[in-house]
Amino acid sequence: MEVAALFAVTMLLGALIILVALAVGRRKEEIREEIEQAAEFAAVGSVAKVPASKKPKQEKQRSRKEKASQHTFSHQLLAASLKSHSANVTCLDFSSNGKYLASCADDRTVRIWSTKDFLDRDHKCLRANVELDYATLVRFSPDSRAFITWLANGDTIRIFKMVKKEDGTLSFKAASEDFPQKHKAPILNIGIAETGKFIMSASTDTSIHIWDLKGDILASINTNQITNSFAAVSPCGRFVASCGFTPDVKVWEVCFGKGGEFKEVARAFDLKGHSAGVHAFAFSNDSSRMVSVSKDGTWKLWDTDVEYKKQQDPYLLRTVPCASSEGSRVALSPDGRVVAISDGCNVAMYSAATGQLEEELHGVHSEEINDLRFDITGRFLACSGDKAIRLFHNAPGYRAAIRDMQDMLKKAQNEAMKQRLQQQISEAQRSLDTVLAAPLD
User: What distance in Å separates the CA atoms of residue 364 and residue 347, rounded to the nearest whole number?
Assistant: First the structure.
């Protein structure tokens, strides 16, 4: 009996100990949660009380860690790295007046940079907030006083006006209404015609919509390319082009009457010659040249200054082997002298005249390059792929310009022309020497 009683008491004591342990553990958990909740509320309260110019210590520590973990890159041709975005940059666009660069990112902002500050140590920018959404694409209006964005969650276009304040600074005001939702597949690109007469949007299925500036659809195009991989408006504002699964680039003219009224979208010409689907294409500034990059491992340069209304086809000028991959982008300098192609995180720059590979830029970004374009002057090549925007001196462009002027000098018979060319060659050579002599950034 005594043994049984002792065993019962032991079991009871064990159960009590277990219950106490569980109660203590549960209470510890509750206390931990209360402390975390109190800390969270305290952090929120401190953020609300701290002025805009000051940040909590925790946030400063986090920002320092983020800066430390940013991808580092240096190259002789690197002119600047723009680093104000707190999330990955998704799109770039230069204004037609050459004064601004617009960038949008997953941080719900659009940044407007001054191109005259590119070579300065500090790069200031203005910020436009995208309320309750974020922009994946951005394009300047022809007058450089507004820009359009594609909203990631809203699946539509939003217009922002750039308003100059009394002190000369810019502010941004979103239009009262967004464009209606019309696309049924993910968006590829948007654009505004330089004429200011229409806006284009293209999606990954086979759809391209042509809009007026009020948000009404003027026309819809079925590209019949199985899937679209890229689409764009030409710099002259006359054409819309697309490429995709099929081995060609299709170009349409958006036609307007003499009074400015919309008439039709008419097929202009095709770029035929690739043996596989086309990743992307680009126009020269006057749309007289186009370049395309394909899955067949080549880029092609085309003379598109043709009388297509008389059934004249574009002329293939050059085919050059290159490295490319899904998502590759191509850019053609405004004067048509330089071709730039992205392949993953790398960029290659070629002479358009000879096809020679002139520069290779490896590991430019920590992630795949998603945009690649020259500025309106052709001095800089810009690209994005992570939180930073890289700007490169267009050294191949300087070399090509010098070669062209040297050829012109040989043929010049007028003494005044010879002197002018010699002066221009000297200036271009000095600019190139300055770029090549610059220390690594």
Answer: 7
| Tokens, residue 306 | 């043709």
pTM for the model stands at 0.82
Q: How far is CA 95 from the centre of its chain?
A: 13
What pLDDT digit, counting tens, does each position of 343-381 carry?
999 999 999 999 999 999 999 999 999 999 999 999 999
Query: Which DSSP helix (H) or strand (E) runs through 90?
Result: strand 89-94
Give the tokens for residue 361. 């830029």
- CB–CB of 248/274 below 8 Å? yes
Residue 301, strand partner residues = 291, 318
Q: How many whole angstroms separate alpha carbon 125 and alpha carbon 294?
A: 36
Give CA 171 to chain center in angstroms.
Answer: 22
pLDDT tens track for 249-291? 999 999 999 999 999 999 999 999 999 999 999 999 999 999 9
| Tokens standing for residue 344 | 């993953």
Distances (CA, A) of 64 to 61, 68, 83: 5, 6, 13
